[in-house]
From TrEMBL:
A single GO molecular function term of this UniProt record: acyltransferase activity, transferring groups other than amino-acyl groups
Name listed for the protein in its UniProt record: N-acetyltransferase domain-containing protein
Organism: Melanomma pulvis-pyrius CBS 109.77
One matching Pfam family: Acetyltransf_1
Annotated N-acetyltransferase domain residues: 1-160
Length: 176
C-alpha cells in the first residue's frame, strides 16, 4: 500500500499522521506499549516490534515544528487491505490529549478502511466503557461479545456502518 499522510493544526500546533513504514521510531512504539495507560499491551524485543509494525498498517502521529517530526501517538491496524482490519494500540502522549488528535487518528483509520474494496469487518477489543462509546460514535462499532472475566469487549462494524459514522470525519484535515 502506498503511504498516506494527513495534516492539521490543533491547539495552535501542527500535526501529521503518516502510514509510511519505518518513520515511527521503534523506541517510541516500545515506550507506548509499556505505558500503563496501554494496559492491554507489553513491549517485546526490537526484532518482534519491527515484525509487528512490518505486518500492520501503522499510523504514526507526529508534532511538526521547524521541519522536525516528533512522534506523539500511534494507532495500528492488522489488515489484509481488502477484507479485514483489526484496530489496536491507539495511543496519544498524555500532554497532547484532549486536542482532538485521538479522534483524528481514528478518522484517518476510517478513511483507510473505507478504501478497502471488500471490507467485511473492522474489529477491535476494548476494556473501557468510554472507549466503547467513542468507537461506537466514530466508527459505527457495535459490541459483539464480552469476556466478563477479562473485562474485555469485542466490537465490530460493517463497511456501511463505518461510512455513516463520525460527524466531521477527517474533513478538516488535508491529505498531503
Ligand atoms: C484514547 C486516546 C487515544 C484519546 O486521545 P485524545 O487525543 O485525548 O482524544 P480526543 O481529544 O480526540 O478525544 C476523543 C475522545 O477520546 C475519549 N477518551 C478520553 N479518554 C479515553 C480513554 N482512556 N479511552 C477511550 N477514550 C477516551 C473521549 O471520550 C473523547 O470523546 P469526546 O470527543 O466525547 O470528548 C488517549 O486518551 C489515550 O492515548 N489514552 C490511553 C490509551 C487508550 O486508552 N487508548 C484507547 C484504548 S481502546
Amino acid at each position: 500500500m502506498d503511504p498516506r499522510e494527513w495534516q492539521r493544526t490543533a491547539n495552535g500546533q501542527a500535526f501529521l499522521v503518516s502510514t509510511a513504514q519505518d518513520v515511527l521510531p521503534i523506541e517510541f512504539v516500545q515506550e507506548a506499549l509499556d505505558n500503563p495507560a496501554v494496559f492491554w499491551a507489553k513491549s517485546s524485543s526490537v526484532a518482534n516490534t519491527k515484525t509487528m509494525l512490518d505486518n500492520s498498517c501503522t499510523l504514526g502521529l507526529f508534532k511538526v515544528q521547524d521541519g522536525t517530526h516528533t512522534p506523539i501517538g500511534m494507532a495500528r491496524m492488522v489488515t489484509d487491505y481488502v477484507t479485514l482490519a483489526y484496530l489496536t494500540d491507539v495511543y496519544v502522549l498524555e500532554e497532547y490529549r484532549a486536542f482532538g488528535l485521538g479522534k483524528w487518528l481514528i478518522s484517518c483509520c476510517r478513511e483507510i478502511v473505507q478504501d478497502m474494496p471488500h471490507l467485511r469487518w473492522m474489529l477491535l477489543m476494548t476494556g473501557n466503557a468510554q472507549a466503547e462509546r467513542f468507537y461506537q460514535r466514530e466508527l459505527g462499532m457495535e459490541v459483539m461479545g464480552t469476556r466478563a472475566d477479562e473485562h474485555v469487549v469485542a466490537m465490530g462494524a460493517r463497511k456501511a456502518h463505518i461510512e455513516t459514522a463520525g460527524a466531521a470525519g477527517a474533513s478538516h484535515a488535508s491529505r498531503a
